[in-house]
C-alpha cells in the first residue's frame, strides 16, 4: 500500500500510474482533489516557449513530458469519457516594441541552439495566424510544438480514472503526522472527527499504514508534520493571479496561446480566454488585488485590443510550488520508504504524466528511472 499526501494533478497522476500497475494506493487531500494549484493553472504545455538560459538542465525532462501528452490525453478520455481539450495549435510569442523584439530574438536564438522547432515571423506574418493581434506587434516567434490542455478537465478526469481503477481518495483529510519507525516511513496519521483529543485540537487520529509514503502536497510539502529535516524539500509558494474572459466560441478572437510581454492568453474550446499570470512572493496569501488584475488586463489588451470588449467572467489566484532552482523535486529521500514529488513551479501540468510514470516505476522497482535522476532533494545539500 502506498499513501500519497496531496491530491493535486501530481498526486492523482502518481496514483493512476500505480493503479495501472496493480499497486494499491490511497491519496490523502486536505481539501478537494485537484482544486488547488492544479485548478488555478492555465494548462499550458510549452517547453519551447518557456526555455530559459538558467534552466537548460530541465529542458530534456520538459520535452519528454510534453511527448507523453498526446497519448496521455487520449487515454484519459478513453478511460473516463471526459474531453480534456488537448489543443495543438502552437504558441505565438510576440514583441510590441524594439526592446521586446531584442529580447525575443535572444530567446529565439536560444531555442534554435537547443534544436527546438521555432519560426521567426514579422508582425504581418504573425497577424496572418492571429488576425486580432495589435498593429503594434512588430515581430513574433511561432512555436508549433507548444500545446495546451484544459487543466480543470484533466484533474476531474484523473480523479475519475484513479477511482475507476480502484484508487482511494480521502478528501478533506489533514495529515497531522508522518509515521517513521526504525528510520523508515511506515504511514501517516490523519485527523478525523471532532470528539477526540489525540490530535491536540479536538480531533481523533487515524493511522494509515503504508509500505511507502509519497509527499506530493505542492506548496505545502515543506510543512508536512513529522517530516525529517533531511527530507524536507526547499519548496515555497509563489502566487499567481489570473482571470478569464468570454469569447464567442464560434468566432474566437484568439485561437492559440499568445505570449505577450506582460501577459499570456490561452483559449479554450468552450470560448473562455484565460489571461495570466502574476508572479508574487507573498507566502500563502491568495488575495486578489486591483493592481494584479489591472496589469493582466492591460497586458492582454496591448497584444489583442479586442479583449477590451469581452466580458470578464472569473478571477482567481493560485500558489505555484516552487523549489530553490525552479525544477521539480522527485524521488526517494534519505528516509527509507519516503518519496517526494513536488516543486514543479509552473510546469506541474506539463510534467504530470512523466512524474506519475517515474514515481510509480521507482516505487515498483525500488530505484528512480534514469530520466528522473538528478532531481532529488539531495541536490540542495
General description of the model:
The protein has helices at residues 9-20, 37-40, 59-80, 98-113, 123-129, 151-164, 290-303, 348-365, and strands at residues 2-5, 25-28, 44-45, 91-95, 119-122, 139-143, 147-148, 168-170, 174-181, 184-192, 204-209, 212-215, 235-246, 257-260, 263-267, 272-276, 312-323, 329-332, 338-342. It is of the alpha/beta class and 381 residues long. 28% of the residues lie in helices and 27% in strands. It starts with a strand and ends in a 16-residue tail after the last helix. Strands 5-6-4-14-15-16-13-17 form an eight-stranded mixed β-sheet. It folds into two domains: 2-77 and 152-234 and 324-380, FAD/NAD(P)-binding domain (3-Layer(bba) Sandwich); 88-146 and 236-323, D-Amino Acid Oxidase, subunit A, domain 2 (D-Amino Acid Oxidase, Chain A, domain 2, 2-Layer Sandwich), CATH 3.30.9.10. Helix 3 (59-80) crosses helix 6 (151-164). Residues 194-198 have low confidence and may be disordered. The chain is globular. The longest helix is centred in the N-terminal third of the chain and has 22 residues, at 59-80.
Multimeric status of the protein: single chain
Low-confidence stretches: 194-198
Strand order of the largest sheet: 5-6-4-14-15-16-13-17
**Strand portion:** 25-35%
- Element order, helices and strands? EHEHEHEHEHEEHEEEEEEEEEHEEEH
Mean pLDDT across all residues, rounded?
Answer: 95
Task: Profile the largest sheet.
Answer: 8 strands, mixed
Helix content: 25-40%
In the CATH hierarchy, the third-tier topology of the largest domain is known as FAD/NAD(P)-binding domain
Shape: globular
Q: How many strands in all?
A: 19
